[in-house]
Design goal:
Shape: globular
Radius of gyration: 19 Å
Largest sheet: 6 strands, antiparallel
Number of helices: 6
Number of domains: 2
Strand content: 15-25%
Order of helices and strands: HHEEEEEHHEEEEEEHH
Mean pLDDT: 97
Structural class: alpha+beta
Length: about 280
Amino acid sequence: MRFDWSKLGRTPPTALVTARNLAHHAVQWPAKAARANLKTLPDDGHSAFTWDASHAALVTAALPAKGGDVRVGVRPARLELIVTRGDNVLDAFQFEARTDDAAGAWIDSKLRALSLKPAGDIKLPYDLPDHPTGGRPHQLGKLGRELGELSRWFAGSADVLDEFARLRGPRAGAVLCWPHHFDIATLVNFDEGRPENPRSIGIGVSPGDEYYAQPYAYISPWPRIEGELPDLPPPGHWHTEGFFGAVATGEEILAMKDRGRELLAFITAAFEIGREHLGA
């Protein structure tokens, strides 16, 4: 693993709620761009992002643009939209002092210039909470540390999940960030091709949501484990309301001595518990 987990923790994980909400709304523009220009996939994966470590950004899959494929994404640390081609950033839009509508107009102008369909015509198939700015210009001056910390959580999470997926082999799916819940995750499917109730385990990290006001790692077996729940390795606990899974919170992850390796060990141990109970 390449990410230096010692760089995390200067900003408490519980202090990232506003930064996370702003970034969650910002990534909807690239998600709409992908929906407008890519073939629809059954699992909605065409609108998901990968973490691009070279740009420190969540980026879409390649969009077939004039002059060569491009990707559209968001750099959380700066809260800016970017359009990239290979290692180059073709253009960027910073949200500071600008409205969300201005971001939409900017991305549509860039997409049209690349002979791509605009994002503004797309209606998302899910609801999000109202935009934190209420339509007013973004004021990010006091959120620099929080946005930087949020970016590091995505970078570290992607690194750990990539390593987990590598170790699990071909059954582990791509590590993707999903614009609906804003979590970054991989899925291990044990019954590929079985149409009814296939067994699987989702392994991911959320930057926080209505369940936890901080980042947290989760390991979620399906079907869920019924009856008496098995013990988890520390610091994990079972979450059972709203979703089912083994969870370690951001505060608990930061308390680990060797964060990256211990988080990977926790994820792997909880995964094995889930796999055993699924009989997979």
